[in-house]
Specification:
479 residues, mainly alpha, Arc Repressor Mutant, subunit A, globular
Length: 479
């Protein structure tokens, strides 16, 4: 473990961050999986305890400029989470919050934010808010503390469905983290920003943050199961399931990544089963569902993990009752809407179920709309249309202020995606409309913007439409 801590310190250049313990744990997990550089021997690392590798023996004496009980507990908590044991991770993080540090580590004062992050993953929102408010009442005014508080708080807001507030909070925290070099805080923030943009069909912003996320991964920052998942989501959205096939297989066949993902992102298990079905990869779908059920068996107190497993297993078996159970269990509004949409899809092929199908689609649409998931809402509107129910057009891509050139919602969405170089087929796939409908709207866009080609459209769009945060700085670096 000493070697892993040294390795993490070298990677981050950050010897006094609360995230260093997490990076060190990630390095430990990489060594276990045989994927880390050969900088330490396996016998330098910790042995399993109660069936879970979670604690060093003995404790390293130089972690974060001097070992203490809090540092050890957070490190063990992080390693437990990486190994897919959210319950153990939460218990140890709670103990770290109550432990006394006699070394004066800023790290130890921030350990409570790791506890909040885990409560968010467990969707224990009330406990998360109580802890976060208590931490903020006693927090210092240092940039590191402020960045951590905002990113962790933003993640909690996002998970509870307060999406606009959450994304604004994460953005502010990321700006501080980037300015003051809190590099190890960036990946989780980038995941939230990319996922939020994807659900709004704002692929430009989504890809912007995925680009930044991949940079952090190349620098060796750990724990990117969620990053791999959101990257696969975006790849499927852009080019269909085949476009994400390699990454999907990599996620499902890597037990370390899959275990961590299933206790971090409740929407992941059902999506993996669904997309593996599209690929005809029934073996991968079964693997994902079995892993989700195993996670639920290990975490009986967490309704979100049980819901995720029931959702995945229900989709695999075509079992309406299991998917319905998931919809009732989910504390996450987006996940509940996803389960309701899947229930409607299962019923759609049955005779005499039209009214129930419409009711479920309507409920899913209301929930997606409430959490700003305009891309998902647009998909459900199209399914309602197929069921003979007309609804007003959904703004498929979020925009700031009035639409430029008097474009309609759909025209704006088509122009946004076409300006990024997407073909009509790709635009149609993302907006759930036919390529012929895309061509019709694109013709209207050309007329209103007085352009004659996609090249002219892209240039005019970049000048007119607000770019993602710090996009200009990125373009300058890439030039």
């Amino acid at each position: 473990m000493d070697a892993a801590v040294n390795y993490a310190t070298e990677l981050t250049g950050d010897a006094d961050s609360w995230h260093l313990a997490l990076v060190a744990a990630g390095a430990r997990a990489e060594f276990d999986a045989g994927t880390a550089p050969l900088r330490a021997r396996p016998d330098d690392l910790i042995a399993p305890r109660d069936g879970i590798a979670e604690s060093p023996a003995p404790e390293p004496e130089h972690l974060l400029s001097g070992s203490c009980e809090t540092a050890g507990l957070v490190r063990r908590s992080a390693l437990s989470w990486l190994n897919g044991r959210l319950d153990v991770a939460l218990r140890l993080a709670g103990e770290a919050l109550d432990a006394e540090c006699d070394k004066g580590h800023e790290f130890c004062g921030l350990a409570g934010f790791w506890y909040v992050a885990l409560l968010t993953k467990a969707r224990e929102f009330d406990a998360g808010w109580r802890t976060l408010n208590s931490l903020r009442a006693d927090a210092s005014e240092s940039p590191r503390v402020a960045a951590t508080s905002q990113v962790i708080g933003g993640e909690l807001l996002f998970a509870t469905g307060r999406v606009d507030e959450g994304l604004a909070e994460v953005t502010a925290g990321l700006q501080l983290a980037e300015r003051y070099g809190v590099r190890s805080l960036l990946p989780s923030g980038y995941v939230v920003m990319a996922l939020g943009a994807l659900r709004r069909a704002d692929m430009r912003t989504c890809l912007h943050y995925l680009d930044k996320l991949s940079g952090e991964a190349l620098l060796g920052y750990f724990g990117q199961a969620a990053g791999a998942w959101v990257t696969a989501l975006a790849a499927e959205a852009r080019g269909g399931a085949d476009n994400a096939a390699g990454l999907i297989a990599g996620i499902v066949t890597n037990p370390l990544v899959l275990r961590q993902l299933l206790v971090s992102e409740p929407a992941a298990a059902s999506w993996l089963v669904r997309v593996c079905g599209k690929l005809g990869a029934h073996d991968l779908a079964e693997t994902a569902a079995r892993a989700a059920c195993a996670a639920a068996a290990e975490h009986p107190r967490f309704s979100v993990v049980r819901a995720s497993a029931s959702h995945a297993a229900g989709l695999l078996a075509g079992d309406l009752a299991m998917v319905s159970e998931a919809a009732n269990l989910y504390p996450d509004q987006w996940c509940m809407a996803s389960a309701q949409e899947d229930m409607a899809d299962l019923l759609a092929g049955l005779p005499g179920e039209r009214e129930n199908v419409i009711r479920l689609f309507e409920s899913a649409l209301a929930s997606y709309t409430a959490v700003g998931a305009t891309r998902d809402a647009s998909r459900v509107v199209n399914k309602l249309r197929d069921s003979g129910v007309r609804r007003g057009a959904i703004r498929a891509v979020e925009r700031e202020g009035l639409s430029p050139y008097g474009l309609t919602n759909t025209e704006f969405a088509v122009a946004e995606l076409a300006s990024q170089g997407h073909t009509n087929n790709e635009v149609g796939r993302q907006l759930f409309i036919s390529r012929h409908t895309v061509a019709f709207h694109l013709k209207k866009v050309y007329q209103k913007m007085s352009v004659t080609s996609r090249v002219e459209l892209a240039a005019s769009w970049k000048r007119t439409v607000p770019q993602p945060p710090d996009a200009h700085e990125r373009d300058t670096r890439d030039a």
